[in-house]
Amino acid sequence: MPKAEIRNQVRRLRFDHGEMTQQQLADRIGCTRQTIIMLEQGRYVPSLALALRMARVFEVSVDDIFELI
Questions:
Q1: What is the number of domains present in the chain?
Q2: How far is CA 44 from CA 1, 17, 18, 34, in A?
Q3: Helix residue ranges per DSSP H, the chain
Q4: Is residue 6 part of a domain?
Q5: Is the distance from CB of 42 to CB of 7 less than 8 angstroms?
Q6: What's the whole-model pTM score?
Q7: Residues whose CB falls within 8 Å of the CB of residue 64, separated by 6 or more in sequence, listed in order
Q8: Residue-range definition of the domain harbouring residue 38
Q9: What is the mean predicted confidence (pLDDT) over 42-67?
């Protein structure tokens, strides 16, 4: 099976939520700032648990953050 390519809206959502920093998001979802950087660059596919925690922080569905392309 080919590697999944996923597009995300993490950067836009951070700015839509009071210009949240990468570190603030990382602290709220329990990961490192480097993970957020890699997510925003499309170089990291999060675990389901991480995606769900992020959706909870942004008060949106996982589908609103991530899109399989």
A1: 1
A2: 18, 22, 24, 10
A3: 10-16, 22-29, 33-40, 48-58, 62-65
A4: no
A5: yes
A6: 0.89
A7: 9, 55, 58
A8: 28-58
A9: 96
